[in-house]
Amino acid sequence: MLLRAWLFVGLISAILEMTGFFWVLLSNGWSPGDPTGEGSALHSVYLQATTMTFVGMVFCQVGTAFAARTDRASLRSIGVFRNRLLLWGIAFELVLTAVLVYVPAFQGLLGTAPLGVKEVAFMAPFPLIVWGADETRRWFLRR
Question: Do 119 and 24 form a contact (C-beta atoms < 8 A)?
Answer without folding.
Answer: yes
